[in-house]
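The passage that follows is intended for readers who have already worked through the single-chain material. We present the inputs for a multi-component assembly, then the predicted structure in tokenized form, and finally a short commentary. You are encouraged to pause after the input and sketch how you expect the pieces to fit together before reading on.
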Amino acid sequence: MVSGCDMAVELSTDSELMFKYDGTIWRRSRLPSGRARIRICTRGVFVSGGPELKSAVDGERLVLAAVGPWTAAHSDALERTIDETVATPAAARKVEIDMSGIDRLDTFGAWLLERLRRTLASDGREAVLVGVSDDRRGLIEDLQKVNLEPAESNSHLLGLNWLAAIGATMAEVTRSFLLLAQMLGEVSHAGVRALIRPGSFRLTSTVHHLDRVGWRAVPIILLITFLIGAIIAQQGIFHFRRFGAEVYVVDMVGVLVLREIGVLIVCIMVAGRSGSAYTAELGAMKMREEIDALRTMGFDPVEVLILPRIVAIVIAVPILTFLGSMAALYGGGLVCWLYGGMNPDIFLSRLKESISLNHFVVGMVKAPFMAMMIGIVACVEGLQVKGSADSLGSQTTASVVKSIFLVIVLDGFFAIFFASMGK
Amino acid sequence: MKIDITNVSKRFGAFAALAGVDLEIKSGELVALLGPSGSGKTTLLRIIAGLEWPDEGRVLFDGDDALARSVGERHVGFVFQHYALFRHMSVFENVAFGLRVRRPRRQRLLEPEIRARVNKLLELVQLGWLADRYPTQLSGGQRQRVALARALAIEPRVLLLDEPFGALDAKVRKELRRWLRQLHDEIHVTSVFVTHDQEEALEVADRVVVMDKGRIEQIGTPTEVYENPATAFVHEFIGESIVIPVTVDNGAVQFHGNRIDIDTQGVTCGPARLFVRPYEMSIASAESAPFQGTVKRVHGIGPARRVELALNVDGHVVEVDAPRVQDLTVGQAVGLSPTRYRLFAGEA
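Having made your guess, compare it with the prediction:
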């Protein structure tokens, strides 16, 4: 005999196969009729019948009897058999899958049977596996426990989580920019409507917010900018003294305060003080469904709640910037006098020489735009609050962080803009 | 006003809040949307109001497409669970708010008219004497009545109430729902209210819509949904039920292999559940009854006593109402036979 070859035989009836090879009698237990394969290799001869799934209707039950070897070697035939069985729907509601006729079973075959059972069960039929011998019970039970839910993404195995995180963050950033643009549009729309019909503009509310954002912020803004001006002057004097260039401290204080520091410090203070308050107020109203209540009564929340707030902050911030810049110059002058021994008259005349109106204008022009940015970020974040107090807190934090960040980014753009304008 | 809702669906991400809901609300009707949390009832209400837009389907107000209009143009009165009153305004101002700032100047009412109308509304909700107080000075029940007056101020075509009594204590809740029913009989505005409290829905509504998992399980009068529940869910959700798992085989009901004398009610084959109201299960002698059990505990006051029984076969505990005159002792073996029952296919 040639080893390592397969040969197909036809078995006419259920028969017992027995043959002699190499002095040993090889025998396989009863084989079903049909095709069988004989495999001869150096270690012996293996004979098997093809796997089959016979169906028989017994009363209201459908019995599917699995016979033959249910192993991976017969995968083609098995898959075809299973597909055929599933494709021909039976009326019976109860299906028994009889496993007693299986002579060899591996995980592949067991899984096919379990899959068949699940497919039938998902069609609303009651499918059970019967005739499970004790040695196979463990395998079948394990398979029945295998979760059918779609496997979780295994991207973490490939170390691709960071990629997914970057994607998610980018999507989130895009979304928040779109929301900002949308809010800008809505506020502009409401503003134009208010210009056309001044009667619909809520002046009382605007004045109320102007009081809170502007008037009540004056003391703290004055204090902070005064200190910042003083510190800049002190540092300037301390370091410039080595070069005998103390007098240029006045240039530095003037330009820095009027162009950048004044407006930035004010905006950061306003973002922390009023932006967060806007977010918290709107968020609390959202949580208490007051915004929905306004909408059901036919009001546009943007017109009623947001426009007065934005108008108030856009008016307040330039005023605060002006006051803040003055306070910073005053602080700087005071330090120059007391710490640097520079006469106030010299300070003022030097200031007059070193700065032009341009520096002042650059600072003041930026203020309303930054105010608008803070107001819009705060209102968008406020309206993003969901029903819980947690979300209120996190949105308030996000509001402050985002508005300060965007204010500084905007400042950068302004720097480029004014540089290219030659101012 | 008549409301027609056809095939409305709404998804929030992967979660289907509403899956093809059809509902018709007649003019002047008071309808309750009843269901457990997450059943989509609030979403449906918010879609009717215009606070939420459906992914598909149609909502018609008197035959007009309501989805083409924004919430402000629909003229709905909405009462929120947590009142949503404006805290910096007095009760009077809260109610007057909708009238005072109504947009086109020509439609705006004159101050004396507003005053008269608000006072009338506050009388209607029996709070005329509280007009100058602020919302924080009122009790929950009073606040909710102010919220209702505010919703009614704009003369809405539909009144929508989202769990209006959910945040109130039990006694006030009971009072208010009786009051709401009276109010509705007085003003006859088409009203829809959402609740998870079946008692409230059954007491107040003309019709009850029972919802579960974004679908309508049954629509009917309170008596219909209670007496003839359409599905197992409705039977279990509304009123108390004793549930016993059984199997139907060859046209007979079997309980743990023993055939019992119970009609299959059209259930063909497979596992089923038997639903019985606690007062429709009679305690009889052990031999003839379909179920046998042992008395575990007898308690309760009033005309009926609550009897806890463990079924003999599987130890399943059921609670049955027994007349006070019936003599029952703990440990006694008794039989249980349902006088009226429903059988629904499917496993628990």
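Commentary: Helices of chain B lie at 41-49, 91-100, 111-124, 140-153, 170-187, 198-204, 222-227, 232-237. Residues 40 and 214 of chain B are 5 Å apart (CA to CA). How closely did your sketch match?
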